[in-house]
Amino acid sequence: MMSMTKDNFLTGKCLISMPNMQDEGFNETLIYICSHTKEGAMGFVVNKKIKEFSFADLANQLPINTLKPIEPIDLHQGGPLEKVRGFVLHSTEYVKDDTIVIDDKIAISSSIDIITDIAFGNGPKDNLIALGYASWAPQQLEKEIINNSWLVTNPTPELVFHTKDEEKWQKALDSLGVDLNRLSSRLGHA
C-alpha cells in the first residue's frame, strides 16, 4: 500500500472545468486528481456515466463468477486514455495490496479483486468505478489553471460518491461560491 505525501501539489483535489475550456471532451467535468507531481498529473472524471457499457458487461469480461445477477452499478468515463482499464475511487476502510490511499477519505484500487468484491457486495462502502483516466504532462496542468481552464476545490466523499452525476459540476462550483454568470474569462488570480 502506498501513501501520498502532502507536497504533491493538487493530489486529492478536484478540478472543475470552466466554460472557456478549449477541449470539448472536458465540458462541465469534475475531475478527481489522484496524483500530481513535477512529472505531471493524473486524474479521473467523476461525473460522466458510461451509457453503452454496463457493470455486468465489465464483470463478464473479467474472470468473475457471475452466477447470481449483479447489481446495476454505474460505470464512469474516467478519461480519454486507456478506456478499457478500470479504476475504482473508494472509501479508505477498504485497503488491499494495490490500493493507493490518497488521503483519509479517498483511495484508489485497480485490481480485479475490488471489482469482484463490489460485484458481490463486499466492496468498499463508497466507490466509483472509472474506465480510463486523464493525464497531463509536466507543467501542463499548472498552465491550464493559470489560463483559467480549471478551478480547484477540495472534494468531499459526499460530492464524489453521493451526488448525482449531473449535479456534481454545479455543486462543486457552489462549494466555491462561484457564480459563472459573473465571471469573466479574463479573470486574474488571487
The total count of strands amounts to 10
How many whole angstroms does the radius of gyration measure?
17 Å
* Spatial separation of the terminal alpha carbons: 37 Å
**What number is the mean pLDDT?**
88
Q: Structural class of the secondary elements?
A: alpha+beta
Shape field: globular
List low-confidence stretches.
1-6
Q: Tell me the major beta sheet.
A: 10 strands, mixed
The helix-strand sequence is: EEEEHEEEEHEHEHH
Beta-strand residue percentage = 25-35%
Question: What share of the residues lie within helices?
Answer: 10-25%
Tell me the number of helical segments per DSSP (H or I, 4 or more residues long): 5
List keywords for this structure.
single chain, 190 residues, alpha+beta, ten-stranded mixed β-sheet, 21% helix, disordered N terminus
Describe the protein.
With 190 residues, the protein is of the alpha+beta class. Strands 1, 2, 3, 4, 5, 6, 7, 8, 9 and 10 form a ten-stranded mixed sheet that branches. Residues 1-6 have low confidence and may be disordered. Helices cover 21% and strands 27% of the residues. It is globular, with a radius of gyration of 17 Å.
